[in-house]
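WARN retry 2 of 3 for item q-0093 after timeout on previous attempt; input resubmitted unchanged.
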Amino acid sequence: MAGSNEAGKADALQPHGAGTLRLSRPVLLLLVIVVLFAALVALYGFDATAQATVNGLVAGGYLGLGAIGLSLILGILKLVNFAHGDLLVAGAYFTILFGWLGLPLVVAMLFAMIATAALAVLTEKVVWQPLRQAGAGTLQLFLSAIGLALVLRFGIQFFAGSQVRTLGADIVSSITIGPIHLGTLQAVALVTGLVVMAVVGLALRFTGIGKEMRAFADNRALAEVSGINTRRIIDVTWAASGFLAALAGILYAVAIGSFNPNFGVTLLLSLFAATVLGGIGNAYGALIGGLVIGLSQEWSTLLLNARWKPAVGFALLILMLLLMPQGIFGKARRRS
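OK item q-0093 returned
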């Protein structure tokens, strides 16, 4: 057995096929990103490429956070939640509400994330749990998700109006690092997004609740007979999804500066693209998928008009899925 293991390891390092090495999908993706960055530097210069890269990381931060919440629901509950984009909107508008009540902006943001997490759990209790108990099929769940999204979106418009709003933060000050110019709030959004994504990844990997959530996603029946409280896992999953969605919506509002109640549906397709690109139901993949979509969309502005960013992101998604059908961290299905 030891000899066969050593032989397997050696074989993984040997040339495969026409003199190529078998590389893992994440390593291959990293190489592609490095090559693309080098090509853009050669064509458009380091300054412009570096600026677009930083902008892409800012976008990837809030897309990655939003995609994690979407991926958790999809991976654990097998639910395609089309209302997820509107939870991002709820986070931004809850921030405005708590700010109007007199709370400092940072405290208002924290309360907004907690309120959105509570809203997500409420939708589970009022909508999704009764539908599961009634034995609703895929089509019924799909239509219910669309209906819930419309209820949330128009509910926000009814109470807050449809006009463009801001969080009231300072959007004028900026930071200059060499050739890179970045708004102070954008820098805060970038750092916050990357740090929270790292914390979430570590929590899913090493904490007890994270391990239980991953076990639930792999096999719910086995998780139940193993003594895992599946009811608690479902509630925690919805709360985490809502909390991360609110943070993503707040970071979007901070990075862009202004927003309206429709920005959730605009971001929703990019969130799904990041989720599928990373590997359906894989939270770690959603992190990387969000960053890849953000980078690809911002890099595309060096070649095309900015209005084509979503189309470029989806073109990249299609191309990568042709090469990596299971996504970056997805697993191929085995045939018995």
